[in-house]
Amino acid sequence: MLSYEYIKTGDLQEAFKLLESREHVYPLAGGTDLIVGMRGGKFVPELILDLKDIEEFKVLTEDNKGITIGALVTLNEICQFKPVVDNIPILAEGCHSVGSYMIRNRATIAGNICNASPAADTSAPLYCLDAVVNIIGSGGSRTVPVDEFFNGPGQNALNKGELVQSVTVLKPYPEGKGVYFKASRTGSVDLATVGVAVQSWGDRVKVAVGAVAPTPVRALSVENAVNEYGEKDWSKAAALVNNDISPITDLRGSREYRYHIVEVLVRRGLEQTMGV
Amino acid sequence: MSELKCVGKAVTRKDAIEKVTGSAEFIEDRFLGPLLYAKMKKSTVAHGKIKKLDLSKALKHPGVKTVLTGKDYKNKIGLYLVDRDFMAVDKVRFWGEPVALVVASTEKAAAEAVELIEVDYEELPGVFDPFEALKPEAPLIHEELGSYEVVPIFYPKAGTNVANHFKLRKGDTEKGFAEADIVIEKEYYVPQMQHVPIETHKAAAHWSPDGKLTVWSTAQSPNVVRQLLAKAFEMPMHKIRVISSYIGGGFGCKAGASLEGLVVPVAQKFPGYVVRIVFNREEDMQGTFTRQALYSTLKTGVRKDGRITALEYKMIWDGGAYTEYGVNIVRAAGYSSSGAYDIPNVKTDSYCVYTNNSIGGPVRGFGMCEMQWGIERQIDYIARELNMDPLEVRLINGMKKGSTTASGQVVHDVDYEKCLKTVADQIGWGKKEQPEKGKLRGKGIAGLVKCPAQPSNAASSAIIRINEDGTAHVMIGATEMGQGMLTAISQIASEALNIPIEKIDIKVPDTDFTPYEWQSVGSRITYTCGTSVKRAAEDALGQIYYIAANLLEVPVEDLTFDGKIVYSTKDPEIKATIREVADSCKKCTGEGIAGPIIGKGSFVPKNMTNLDPETGQGNPGMFYCFGATGVEVEVDIETGVIKVLQLATSIDAGKAINPQLCTVQLHGGTIMGLSTALYEDVRFDKGVMLNRNFTDYKIASIDNTPHIESFIIETPETNGPYGARGIGEQPMIGVAPAVANAVCDALGVEFNTFPLTPERVWRALKEKK
Predict the structure, then answer these.
(1) Which class would CATH give B31-124+201-278?
(2) What is the pLDDT of residue B328?
(3) Contact check, Cβ <8 Å, A3/B108
């Protein structure tokens, strides 16, 4: 039904020009959110800018800085990348819980965070890993921490003319176990009703939760209790998550159930990563 | 019966190669040629008068050929109660009801023009709860109900919102309750759900200058579409041709006629064009049939020994804005209201109530899933109250040969006990398994029964043409929507003709060429169409023998046919090939004996009767198909997540014409039932359907489908072809109550509604504390 222009370019400079050439330009990587949003009338593009030929965005490497995942790397590629599986398996778990296998064959981590859904399954693991987002535009490059990238539902930190080039998980990697738990209606091919990531770093922990606030959030109350006050009763620590969130009621679950389930999943996460 | 050669074998699907290679044609593949695109303007209020409907801007939009409103259609449409306008006339009765139809040379132009139509409504108070709709002061949804044409087995009440009141009185319930040691009364609620076939509703129409109308449709019944269009547009049937193709799933939503009529007047206005209308997913969810919600009260009297002495069943159905088809679901649930049990005294009142929700209509099970949810939950309440085994209570009361249904019909050819025991054995009934920490386990069982819900004279017919080389064409009016009908019917033809199945061709219907079939609904086709085909095959075979007897100059009784050669049993050297017999057979003198062989067969049930209007007593069932479902679950008591550990289903198919296809049907029905048990319900907010896409309306996917153990039981149906009865809908019916019974066994918490979402389970557990 829609009428729009479509341009594919492998040239980054041309891409920047095109980004500023119209008011409503939508970059296309995996397209799994874009196409659905266009069909539903959420996105009305004048131009779709296909990035799939941009070599700079295809990087998937580990170096002395850490692991860098280019904007065009698919979720399935991330799940199978050995440095991710060996060092930060929590991210593979998050990637693996998005949609279906077919969706993950196309969907990218950059798309998942640019869509800026508070329920984005890769987000809570990225928050726990203190990942950074590498942004590039005609004016140059900048890097922002992932928790500053999410501004609200559907709102990210990109300015007009900017693109996400990659996401980097910096060294040192966590020394300890990490888990991502997702509560959903059907348990597969579904959005998160609540997503919980818990990552231990020695005797410290990082906890991030999704779908319980306008953006993913770190459960700092829980982290403080464990890390600063030495709370070892995981039930008590998990109950503090309620201070960090402001869930809503929607078709996927009520506010009350979200309060309940997030606490259960945080406690389970602490048990599994910090020991019972 | 001699040994069967083709029936009972796992023959490969007739449509397998076409479907796996992607060459199978679905109806949209057949919309060829100069095309026009139709798009609907939909109501934004659930109940209101149309004060202004301004089409002027839309008509001026480039590419727009015409815009129609409800007033462009002379008559209403409806299968049983003629209550539905093609599009709203003067008032709208549900949110999303079509108020205008834009037709343009491109889909884009049509969609743009839809936005240019200006509609003003005077909103009327909406009624979204059937109990509100039943109140005397409730706003009337159909002021003209008393003047609607209705098949006289339905009882709408003029001046109210009651579209049908089905009454059933069997025995004496007062006496039955007096005989009981305990009386249990419970309320149940079953929400609306959607069919979600993979292919949405689609249709196209073409008008020839000679006045011939051709319609392409995804409908489950081309013949009923033709019948309803003939009536609505006052046309003779030979001037209407309805073409079917492979259908991507029906499940009842494509029964009757839905969108076909919308494009007919447009086609008439623009002869030569193919005018198409294709629903997107949201339109399909919101604008076609929805399973009616059921609010029910069940009161049961039981003796201490577990025998049920009386049942009072009150059913209030949310029929939605139009109930042209829904009135019959209400009737079917009423006459079947004792479920799979022989209860001597039954009093049932089943009401179909208009509301301003989406249109209610047929869904796999046709009222049985909703009605037997209450029955099968109630049996578990009874067992708990009496401290008896729920399986035992089912066996004590379950129907046996010679039992009577709620409508007093005597059932034959029944082995319900075997159905129950089979699934019980499979899931290790009576043995409690050790759950994981933080989890509880339970087992549940539910029985089921269903007869086809159809008019007592719903007919079927078949033609078999024998080609000159002895191969055959089977022509029927049934549709192929994935259920495997083409294969099963070919197997029956092959068996009866004694011609190998590879030599039999069969196609989906085209009303200009294929003979009449009422509808491909109600799990009836194997039985009705199968009987017609068997008769047609026997007719053709009789002709083969007759012609061969003439040719070979031996008595017919001496002949036998092995699929290739007709020969004398007395002297096998006296023989003729099928080719000699079938190809304009002539004697050695050159004199002709017979022309081409055409076998014909038709069928109408002889064992059904009307029901008494006051007592509902009579014979509504062509056959009764029984079955059972057994489930073991493990419930996470913190999250409320239910994991199905074991799922077993048994269905008494009478005779499985194709056991592999039967098993697949058992799987499909069981998954569909499980999906409703755990996930599915349509959410409304004052008539606005909130979850009308697959992000918001969730169904089971392969990831959450457990292994299913399927058992086909074969108690032959005396009048069925080779003993077969239909099994298409049945596997769905027992799943939701079996799951709930298992969850209840695990948690000690009762559920009188579903889906059993994690949140619902969590809330129930919280309340228990």
Answers:
(1) alpha beta
(2) 98
(3) yes
